[in-house]
Write a structure and sequence with these properties.
By secondary structure, this protein is of the alpha+beta class. The protein contains 6 helices and 11 strands. Strands 1, 2, 3, 4, 5, 6, 7, 8, 9, 10 and 11 form an 11-stranded antiparallel β-sheet that branches.
Length: 243
């Protein structure tokens, strides 16, 4: 297994402007220098060394914990730097800007058993059906990941799964600017472009932090009736005023 560094210039997709934090005006209003690049876009970047090394096996049954440590801005040069695999087989990939860590992604080649923990809430949200066509078909390529496996095999990019979880946030939980902070993603199968996804989500936690109100979702994504991804998805859904 050969894990190599991969570099890209960060960009925002046009559809991300629906969240004001991904525009220059909205980013500055939230206390940043400019527009923040969507977390799912940077996740697409850090998956590049993983998929290049592990191939479709990781897309079918691997998983990852992605943590957003500090913002990436549009135009930033991003280096995705993998560490050597641990003795358990997991790999850490860091997204660096100017040598500073912005995103940490810990990936594993199979889905480990994770003990259930108590959940404060059980707020089930309305399911959503989403055809994996149009902008979903080339999502990773438009974000900047040009790895050929997706177009060649007609495979949906793994960044689509947290992007669909973001859609739950925008439909149900946010009003104005918000920030994706963390996701734990488990793959259960490969999805093909053109299939239809059903997204089911439950709010399992809400809590206050210094930066704002956070919410945690449990998200299940099925494609044409078969489970393909489960996600624990966390975001700041209401930012506290700056200044």
């Amino acid at each position: 297994m050969d894990l190599t560094t991969w570099s890209v210039q960060a960009r925002n997709l046009p559809e991300h402007a629906a969240n004001p934090i991904h525009t220059d005006e909205g980013g500055r209003a939230a206390g940043f220098d400019a527009a923040l690049v969507a977390g799912v876009t940077v996740y697409a970047y850090v998956t590049r060394p993983i998929v290049e090394a592990w191939g479709p096996g990781w897309l079918a049954e691997g998983g990852a914990l992605v943590e957003f440590l500090s913002p990436v801005q549009a135009g930033d040069p991003v280096d995705c730097v993998p560490a050597a695999p641990t003795r358990t087989g997991s790999v850490e990939v860091m997204a660096l800007v100017g040598g500073d860590a912005r995103v940490r992604c810990t990936a594993w080649p199979g889905s480990p058993d994770v003990a259930d923990r108590g959940r404060p809430l059980n707020e089930q949200l309305e399911p959503h059906v989403e055809p994996l066509t149009g902008g979903w078909a080339d999502y990773g390529l438009r974000a900047g990941d040009d790895l050929g496996i997706y177009a060649e095999a007609g495979i949906v990019h793994p960044a689509v799964w947290p992007a669909l979880a973001n859609g739950v946030m925008t439909r149900h939980l946010v009003d104005g600017a918000w920030i994706h902070t963390r996701s734990r993603i488990r793959h259960h199968g490969i999805a093909r472009v053109g299939a239809t996804a059903t997204v089911q989500a439950t709010v399992v936690d809400r809590f206050e932090t210094r930066s704002g109100t956070r919410a945690v979702l449990d998200v299940t994504i099925s494609v044409d009736g078969a489970l393909v991804a489960t996600i624990e998805h966390e975001a700041i859904v209401a930012l506290h005023p700056t200044g």
